[in-house]
Design a protein that fits this description.
The protein has 264 residues and is an all-alpha fold. It is 71% helix and 0% strand. It has one domain: MetI-like fold.
């Protein structure tokens, strides 16, 4: 599932039957090919402006992948760094980072999106920033807990006795040993970010309407559910398949990294 989504995103200009900006008002709201009146010229039908739905679904995978992976990479970097600092130095540093985590978790996600949209407007980069800022707290909490557990282990004491610097201990001895939960969390977070991007685009807080996105298609299609169900249903199915594929990958990675789960 994930491989198919990545293939669609990378090969969109070659596999999409039309340009995403191409309109044909004479053929607006055509049904899918399996419905009466459908045509193979538009296998998934057309929208209210005569744009090909299949083309928009294919190009929409680009936005979902870019937002999902970029926001996870940015939020993961922030959360891992803060979690390592809090778990290694503890005391006042730990208290400050954990208070920031609690504030972040208490701050409403939609409210932050509204603030960013009001101050800076819509845009792909701004959407990634909002998702990254709201997603780092999970990494920080998990990494902090893992770092606290690793802090007292014998190999860390041995590294200290050899006179290694704190940075070397953290980067060479602690971080490699706590990567497995980070990778699993990041995998599941990609699916979450795709859903959140679709939700923000549905509310008009995501990417501009001129950019193909699955959330934007859902927003447009809700007004035509009675006469053109495919406008909202088909992009919803695309989101379902993408998120399901990523979650299955996350389950597999969790089993691989956890020997107790793998042996059962």
């Amino acid at each position: 599932m994930l491989l198919g989504m990545i293939t669609c995103a990378l090969a969109a200009p070659w596999i999409a039957p039309y340009s995403p900006g191409q309109q044909d008002l004479l053929n607006s709201l055509l049904p899918p090919v399996w419905q009466p009146g459908g045509s193979w010229a538009h296998p998934f039908g057309t929208d209210q402006l005569g744009r090909d739905v299949l083309t928009w679904i294919i190009y929409g995978s680009r936005v979902s992948l870019v937002v999902g992976f970029s926001s996870v990479a940015l939020s993961g970097a922030i959360g891992v760094v803060l979690g390592l600092v809090a778990g290694f130095y503890r005391r006042a540093t730990d208290a400050v980072v954990m208070r920031l985590v609690e504030i972040q978790l208490a701050f409403p996600f939609v409210l932050m999106a509204l603030l960013v949209a009001a101050l800076f407007g819509q845009g792909l980069g701004k959407l990634i920033l909002v998702l990254a800022v709201t997603g780092w707290a999970t990494y920080a909490r998990v990494v902090r807990a893992e770092t606290l557990a690793a802090h007292e282990r014998p190999y860390i004491e041995a590294a200290r006795s050899l006179g290694l610097s704190n940075a070397r201990i953290v980067l060479r001895h602690i971080l490699p040993n706590i990567l497995s939960p980070i990778v699993v969390i990041a995998t599941f977070s990609v699916a979450l970010m795709i859903i959140q991007e679709a939700a923000l685009s549905f509310l008009g807080l995501g990417v501009p309407p001129s950019i193909p996105s699955w959330g934007g298609m859902l927003s447009d299609g809700r007004n035509y559910l009675a006469v053109a169900w495919w406008l909202g249903t088909l992009p919803g199915v695309a989101i379902l398949i993408a998120v399901l594929g990523i979650n299955l990958l996350g389950d597999w990675l969790r089993d691989v990294f956890d020997p107790t789960l793998r042996n059962t």
